[in-house]
Amino acid sequence: MEYNFNQRKKDVLEKSDKSSKQSWDKKIIELCNLINSSENYYTTSSCAGRVVLMKDEEKKGEGLFLKVWHDEINFEIFKNELNKIIEHDFTPKGKFKLESPIIHIVCKNLESALELLEFAKYLGFRRSGISSFSRNIILELNSTEKIEFPIIEKNKVLVDDEFFKIVLGKSNFFLERGWRKIEKLKNFFEN
Questions:
Q1: Which structural domain, as residue segments, surrounds residue 140?
Q2: What is the pTM of this model?
Q3: Which pairs from 169-173 meet CB under 8 Å and 24+ separation?
Q4: What is the per-residue pLDDT across 126-140, written as a single tens digit (0 to 9) for each?
């Protein structure tokens, strides 16, 4: 099993980035490097948290995400981007979404998975668990910060500026809280 884990780790880490962003989030690069340099773990995908304006559709596909931010966002920038979407992209239905940090980690064995899972839950990655046992032991670390609501209906914005200001303030707070959890998680791999 160890040879297979090491070979799979080598193969995965040599592959090019297939995410829609085509790069790691700046706020998670250091953690991913630490995970990937450890002998018991490697990452398959990760996100440090984000705010998304997206089409309100069930299926994933090209053009689903209308605008994505991986940093704090201010009202003027947000409103400007929302207006561009309304003016240029006919989007009959759209939604606002704040997503918490999520990290998928392949673990060498069950013992290493459970050790990391316990530490991550202690830090606040409460929606975490082992998501696969088939070929690999995959640990999904997910935090609880989340906001989601419809924002566009029939190409019209559904909420007013005051509501946006409140939501963006809360979103920035949640993003920062997720980034602090990422920083604390680095301690597990540094020690």
A1: 2-190
A2: 0.86
A3: 170/98, 171/51, 171/73, 171/98, 171/147, 172/72, 172/73
A4: 999 998 777 789 999
